[in-house]
Amino acid sequence: MSEHAVLPAWALIAYLASGMLFILALRGLSSPRTSRRGNRFGMAGMAIAIFTTMVTQAPIPPDDWWPRPTSADLAVLFRIVVALGIGAVIGLTIARRIQMTAMPQLVAAFHSLVGMAAVLVGLAAYFNPAVFGILIPDGAFPARSSLSPSSTAT
Fold first, then answer.
1. What is the rounded distance in angstroms from the CA atom of residue 104 to the CA atom of residue 25?
2. Is 68 exposed, middle or buried (0-12, 13-18, 19+ CB in 10 A)?
3. Which of 18, 29, 31, 102 could pair covalently with 49 via S-S, beta carbons 3.0-4.6 A apart?
């Protein structure tokens, strides 16, 4: 979405809502009594985040709120759907094969994958900040950017 318009307000609100649902999911998963509700919050948050990401991958005209995809945008959407499908197949396979007694190890392994994904996203933002919309219009880092290679910690 680097060359497209800034996200519309509805998308920002949707991402905020999904983040709040993720926090509620973590809170709900802290107790066996509330774990089902926590799972539902997490699933709803992820559904909102995926839908918003898919819809906002195409350029959104300034006077409109819905995207107008090009063939390149549809190719990106196809790659996203393929990646989601691969992840779903892997996750479903692992979930069906795991024994209940090995559940703590499974959760720990999945958490390590989440941590690895966060590191990879951070590295991608560092090495290609324009794709993440981090640069200012002239192509430079904003003053006081923590991502700037020349910035120093204060």
1. 18
2. exposed
3. 18
Q: What is the DSSP letter of 128?
A: -
Would you say the pTM of this structure is higher than 0.85?
no
On whether the CB atoms of residues 102 and 94 are closer than 8 A, the answer is: no
What pLDDT digit, counting tens, does each position of 85-142 carry?
998 998 888 888 888 788 788 878 778 888 888 899 889 888 887 777 777 677 676 6
**d(C-alpha 151, C-alpha 18), whole Å:** 32
Cβ neighbours of 71 (radius 10 Å):
6
Domain ranges of the chain: 9-97, 107-148
Distance CA(58)–CA(56), nearest Å, equals 5
